Amino acid sequence: MRSQVADDIDAVLKEVAFNADGLVAAIAQQHDTGEVLMMAWMNAEALAETLATRRVCYFSRSRGKLWRKGESSGQTQRLVDLRLDCDGDALLLLVDQTGVACHTGRRSCFYRAARPEGLVEIAAPEVSPDALYRS
Amino acid sequence: MRSQVADDIDAVLKEVAFNADGLVAAIAQQHDTGEVLMMAWMNAEALAETLATRRVCYFSRSRGKLWRKGESSGQTQRLVDLRLDCDGDALLLLVDQTGVACHTGRRSCFYRAARPEGLVEIAAPEVSPDALYRS
């Protein structure tokens, strides 16, 4: 007999319009402040794991495998709520971000703003990337 | 002689990592409330027009042409700020949304939530889609 959780995950998965590469865009937003932290991609396996564990897991297109956010940096994302858009090709993840989301050590990946004088960095690193990925 | 605005737009465009289809993902967020409204796509022309006019213009993948948000519904988006992520393949648009962002008449496209009982609608339409697209 399948578990209730597995049935619920299947109910979500069948509403997702994965693209030709089997991926769906996922936007991570800090649940309480509303800050948009990053955008990445999920395949069905990453989405199912995220819903089952409530720890956010993406699919890394560059590495071609599951990317358990924070597995090397410790900067994990706890899933608070998951939303699906009207045509099913984008996910909004409301998360509780531990530390910083960006590999540059900044809280959000969206730290460059288009201003009249050109692209401007509007946030500084909170931690050193070297410290994040120290082995 | 090129205008300063055109030079600034070029400075942004050359930092964007458009995908194989010439598109970049664009997330629209209401600038003051933080609500994530929708995700769509831009090509270089749509992005340049958005920066020049401060009215958000996407590229419709289904129609294969520029999609000036609100051109048929009146539900326009005024650009307040535009952010680029660390690897240049996603944009965050801080906008002032007139009316509703979603073609279903809801404020946000992300109105379905994955809950233990399955997908649940967490927002009702604020206006009728028929009223939005009345000719």
Outline the structure in words:
The structure is a homodimer of 135-residue chains. Chain A is an alpha+beta fold and 135 residues long. Chain A has a single domain (4-100), classed as Phosphoribosyl-AMP cyclohydrolase (Ubiquitin-like (UB roll)), CATH 3.10.20. Chain A contains three helices and eight strands, in the order H-E-E-H-E-E-E-E-E-E-H. In chain A, the strands form three sheets. In chain A, strands 2-1-6-5 form a four-stranded mixed β-sheet. The first copy, chain A, is globular, with a radius of gyration of 16 Å. Chain A starts with a helix and ends with a helix. The mean pLDDT of chain A is 94. Strand 5 of chain A pairs antiparallel with strand 7 of chain B, so a sheet runs across the interface.
Structural class of chain A: alpha+beta
Oligomer: homodimer
| Number of E-state strands of chain A | 8
- Overall mean pLDDT score of chain A? 94
Sheet with the most strands of chain A? 4 strands, mixed
Taking the alpha carbons of the first and last residues of chain A, their distance comes to: 42 Å
- What's the CATH H-level homologous superfamily of chain A? Phosphoribosyl-AMP cyclohydrolase
CATH classification, class level of chain A: Alpha Beta
H/I helix tally of chain A: 3
Relative helix content of chain A: 10-25%
